[in-house]
Amino acid sequence: MATVVVLGAGIAGHTAAAFLKKKLGKKHEVIVVSPNSYYQWIPSNIWVGVGRMTVDQVRFKLHKVYDRWKIVYKQAKAISIHPEGNETQSKGFVSIEYTSEDKRGQKEEVSYDYLVNATGPKLNFEGTPGLGPQQHTVSVCSYDHAAHAWKELQEAIQKMEKGEKQRFVIGTGHPMATCQGAAFEYILNVAFEIRKRKLDHLAEITWLTNEYELGDFGMGGAYIKRGGYITSTKVFAESFLLEHNIHWVKRAGVYQVEPNRIHYETLEGEKKQIDFDFAMLIPGFAGAGLKAFDKNNNDITSTLFAPSGFMKVDADYTAKPYEAWKASDWPETYRNPTYPNIFAPGIAFAPPHPISKPMASPNGTNIFPSPPRTGMPSGVSGKIVALNITNLIKQGEHSLKHRASMGKMGAACIVSAGYGMTNGAAATMTVYPIVPDWEKYPEWGRNINYTMGEPGLAGHWLKWTMHYLFLHKAKGYPFWWLVPE
Amino acid sequence: MNNLRRDYHEEAYPPMPTSTTRFWRKEIFWQLSRFFVLNFKIIRIVVLGHS
Question: SS3 for A263?
Answer without folding.
Answer: strand
